[in-house]
Every structure is written in C-alpha cells, then in structure tokens.
C-alpha cells in the first residue's frame, strides 16, 4: 500500500548525497521498521511520462518520529563533468524540497539486523552502501546494547566521507564499536590516522588484521563488484553463507550493454497480465516489466529491484523475456523476475 510522506527537512551531506527526513502527510504514526530495511518509492522524474520505482534504505535507527533516507545522485560512468544518470536520485537530490510529498511502500526488505541476537557483527560498506549499516549501528547504540560491532567503510576520500563526524563520535563514545575508514584516493589534505585508517579499498587482508576471530555475522552493502569480492573472500576464509548477509546498491536506471534489443524492433509488443485481466502495449521507455505494470496500476510485489531477492518471481504463461543484467536469483524455466527483465515479444504473465 502506497503512503504519502512529506519532506520536513533536507540536509546536504556532501556534493552528491542528500538526506531527506520524512513524516506521513496525515501525521499518523510511522510503521516500525528493522534496521537495514528500506522504503520502495514511486517516483515520476521530470520529463518522463510514467512512474519508476526505487528503493532507498533507512539511514537512521528505528524508534524516531521520522524516517531518514540518504540518497546519492548517480553520475554517468564518465563523470568528469558530473553528468547525472540516475533519474530518481537526481530528482530527490536536486528537485525535491522541504514541503514536497513522496509516495512509498514499506517498510520492507530481508536485509536487516536481528536485534534479538547478541552475536558480534562485522559491517562492511562501500560508498552510499553505508546507509542500511548505519541504521544498524545506530539501532545498537540507541538500544544501549553491548553487542560488539566492527565497521569498515570504504570511500574515495573526505569529499564523499558522509556522516564523518557522527561515525567519529560513535567510535569514541562506545567501547563495543570499532570503526575503520578506507580511502582509495585521498586528497592531499587528507591525513592517514586522522581522517582515515587505511589507504586503498576495503580488502580482506585489512579486514582480517582487525579481527581476533571469525565468529561474526557479516553484513555487506555496496557496489556489486565490491560485494562480489568481499563475499568471495569471506567464503575463502571459511565463513559460511549463513553468516554472510548482503544488499546490492547501485543505479537502477543504468543502461546495460548486455541487454538484447532484438525483440524490441517489432512494430508492436503486447504484455498480458492474466490475473489482472489487462493487456497493455510495451514501450522501450520502460526499463523493466515492473515499470510497465506500475505505469498501468498493476501491482507486482517487489523487494530489491535488482533480481537478488526473488520477491517478484512470476510465472510466464507464454512468451520469453530478456534480462537487463545478471541476477543473483536464477529463475526456474517458465518463470521470470519482472524487476530485471523486458519482453522479447508478445508476453503473458500470471499476474
């Protein structure tokens, strides 16, 4: 169910990151959430005829009278001129103002801290992937838990080291929390030992040097390449899959060269949603079948929008799909992940 949230505060955390503070437009009490979860926003970028969906994690712990999300404006791959590529993130970062209203579903998501356990945890974040992990560590501090936390954050340099002073305070004021910062390309003014703890990306050798044992649960969030490296490295160290929790972060509107446009050259493609009793025309302006459904008020349950959670797994009645990118979930024959694929031709889904 979509709810309407009013932005009552907006903070520029860095040149590319803004935090939005939200309350329900009707002033009702906010639904509780688990640290690490997110909201799924329904957003209509300027100049676009249909809505798109994007999820943004809570960057503050639960129990407040507001939600906070922190959004990075995604840039084109060649960002020398800081050209934006993320439609939704650019709108939230540059256009949305205090007093504006946003629509979102949730809270939702399977990536969250199990607050009933006291097992020590390791949090590993890359860039804006800090947001759900910051919610976790804030929740631990807010509950006055003594759960041990070792937090690794990798960023480029001080220019995108968001929440720097807050992280320093957490590190200084809580004996059960250790935070280590890695800069991959420090500025001349950045000081090792003061602004950051390690020169380079977050790597497994640095992580191992700070762990006295491996009896931890590991929570990893960041760009796909970083997460693939970290998870593979942890497994090579004997860490079980059950102890490794991951959440993908990245621009959802990126154009993937692996996508096959073969089917889109046909004059007309129709998609039938069998259960809903609707048949609609496909258009290349949509990034996925989920966007097509959303534009026509057809509801599909979604979680991650990257094909990593399986929430949207749907039966194909007839036709074929083409995937925008590799997905963590491998659909069985006769099924698809509408959040990450497009029709090759006429398609019928059991939705």
TrEMBL record:
Task: List the InterPro entries hit by this protein, alphabetically.
Answer: 2Fe-2S_ferredoxin-like_sf, 2Fe-2S_ferredoxin-type, 2Fe2S_fd_BS, Beta-grasp_dom_sf, Cbr1-like_FAD-bd_dom, FAD-bd_FR_type, Flavoprot_Pyr_Nucl_cyt_Rdtase, FNR_nucleotide-bd
The membrane spanning regions, by residue number, are 121-141
Pfam families, per database record: FAD_binding_6, Fer2, NAD_binding_1
Q: Which residues form the FAD-binding FR-type domain?
A: 1-114
Q: Does the keyword Calcium apply?
A: no
Which intervals hold domain 2Fe-2S ferredoxin-type?
Answer: 269-351
Molecular function terms from GO: 2 iron, 2 sulfur cluster binding; flavin adenine dinucleotide binding; metal ion binding; oxidoreductase activity
Q: Which UniProt keywords apply?
A: 2Fe-2S, FAD, Flavoprotein, Iron, Iron-sulfur, Membrane, Metal-binding, Oxidoreductase, Transmembrane, Transmembrane helix
Protein name, per record:
Ferredoxin-NADP reductase
Q: Which organism is it from?
A: Maribacter ulvicola
